[in-house]
Automatic annotation (TrEMBL):
Belongs to the DNA photolyase class-1 family. This is Photolyase/cryptochrome alpha/beta domain-containing protein. It comes from the Eukaryota. PROSITE patterns: DNA_PHOTOLYASES_1_2 (PS00691), PHR_CRY_ALPHA_BETA (PS51645).
Amino acid sequence: MSTRHRLLSALFSRRAQPMPQLTLFADPASKSLSLSPEKAKAKTARSSSSRAAAYTKRDPDPNLWELHHHQEDMAAASKSRVKAKVEEVEEDNEHTKGDRAKGHPGKRRAESPEGGGVAGKEAKRHKNAYEIKGKVATAEVAAKVDEDPPLNQLTRLLDEKKNSVDKGESVVYWMRMDDMRIEDNTALSQASDRARELGVPLVALFVISPGDYRMHDRSTRRIDFMLRNLRHLKPKLDHLNIPLHVVSFDKRLSIPRKLVTEVFPHLKTTHVFVNIEYEVDELRRDIATVKLGRANGIDVVCLHDRLVVPPGRSRVRRGNRCRCSVHGRGVGTVINGIRGVVLMRFRSRNDPSIRNDTHFGKLFDATPIPDQVEGFECADRDQIAEVWPEGTEAAKELQLVSPLSDGAEHDDKNSRVQQYQTGRNLVDGDNSSKLSPYLASGVISARMVLAEARKLNKKGKLESGRDTGLGMWVQEVSWRDFYNHVMSTWPRVSMGRPFLEKFADVQWEVDEDHLNAWKEGRTGFPIVDAAMRACNKRGWMENRVRMVAASFLVKSLMLDWRLGEKHFMENFIDGDLAANNGGWQWTASTGTDPQPYFRIFNTLTQSEKCDPNGDYIRYWVPELKHLKGKAVHDPFHNMPSNEFKKLGYPAPIVDHKQSRERALFRYKNVGEKEA
Ligand SMILES: Cc1cc2nc3c(=O)[nH]c(=O)nc-3n(C[C@H](O)[C@H](O)[C@H](O)COP(=O)(O)OP(=O)(O)OC[C@H]3O[C@@H](n4cnc5c(N)ncnc54)[C@H](O)[C@@H]3O)c2cc1C
């Protein structure tokens, strides 16, 4: 058994053996797991060049993004460099100004500086109100963007008749941080076809943007995973004689201009292929790149790749509800309709003569992949790398509940995938695939996993439904598709707005101590604390405990769901805006599928259901490791107070019954606080 598999089974298969504490990472007996100070030393890479350049014609009523771009450009021209934090503050302020400049009086904002419900002076005292301020669009701006979502704008742009472009000397595949693979990659596959047609070499490009990562709350683990995957891909591309060119632009809004005016000309290309990212900022970046490219004789081709079924091709609505179950069946129907999942083939490699080319030959070593990104140094990189190794092969090797695992072909009752139906809500064992980091970074594609899932069905169909483990698993993968559909159709959700605007002004508590207790796993609710400590230590959580921890923050502590959304993004290795936002909005009852506000998770009941023997809690909350029986779920109410005190574990920070009533009142009477 490899070191990694030992570690994985230690971390995930808790029933089988006594669970080691997470200090096992530094286990002296296992040298490969101990921290290496040398490795931890970071080299930082940053390229910064500020060339003022004219930007494309602006709309008379510029949207927020373009406004930001303009302001950033002006700032770049006048100042050489401003510290990262200061920049964000300025950007946030411009955001607010921008809304007003467009004639939006910002009524909600005046009442609720967070764009949500913490009113007046109180909000200003809340440190975290500042953190999320500026990332929350006003209701008016969000509604306007929803009217004509950026994906529609991009689609129209791509459908427009375009002028033919000159041949150029290369074709570029611009790899994004969520399509980090060679296999089944639409843009890469089409770029390689085009290069072959034109008889020119294919070049892979990767853009690092710390400013983008800061703005989008990327976790250090996710960025480290990105770099590891990039390093893993480089020799593979090299083997195909494809150079990987890596550039770094701190200012995310300058990317289209930098690429079109500097990078693409340097790569001597007029044909660029990308896979579309469905987040608002990313779509706007692509719109700008396509427009600017066209104005400069460069064709930027944007393709659907991230999802099994591209947005809009499967029904997500029934009546006036937008439901994943409908979508899940839609995915099955589309795939079975086209007789299977179509995987993209990568057909051609560059001619080896590229290496002797005076220009392209140099690209192979010109831009090394940085060891770390400044501001995103991953403190626990070695441990995280052991648990979540990079590369498509590693994803396929996960011996967990996945159609990709060995043994998955046994679709009898012993099959792990079939057991998913009963096991998926249990957190005390090895019950789910752990593929989310790989799917979020595109190290494997959702098409690849569904193609494997389809093979497991005896009739060769893609099952989707709640009746079998496999069907259920496919449905879970459909959630990923679904939330991307939602985000691209209602971009408001990636602008900090609730999907259901009627809950925008729910009144949130302002309590730094409660927020920190939640983040650090010190709430006195063992299952919540276990989940949050797991999040902090391994950058990942099982779905059920994500829901429990999220529900506790929102409904029990009555803290703004966006604070939790941000914290998860900043810590998870699988941080993904669509899935994370979808999960938070579902839990906060502000989202699509029904989780009505009056359905509030009972933390204790959830704990007993998802961790029946308490093993998960004992593992992550060592203060409770000697507790027997049900006391482990609620030690405060099940132990004499002097015994409880000896545990060194906190008493519950809220009363479940009272907090439930408070949540019910605040959701029912949006904008009000109970007397
Ligand atoms: C509050 C909250 C935040 C979340 N944040 C993220 C996130 O940042 N990134 C992320 O990938 N998932 C997120 N999820 C969804 C889900 O919890 C994880 O995808 C899942 O726990 C990953 O474990 P797994 O790979 O073993 O999943 P499995 O159960 O094996 O499912 C297979 C795959 O299906 C997809 N999937 C499963 N459930 C969901 C779901 N509810 N929504 C979207 N996709 C799903 C994932 O890609 C997953 O890897 C969140 C859920 C909640 C409730």
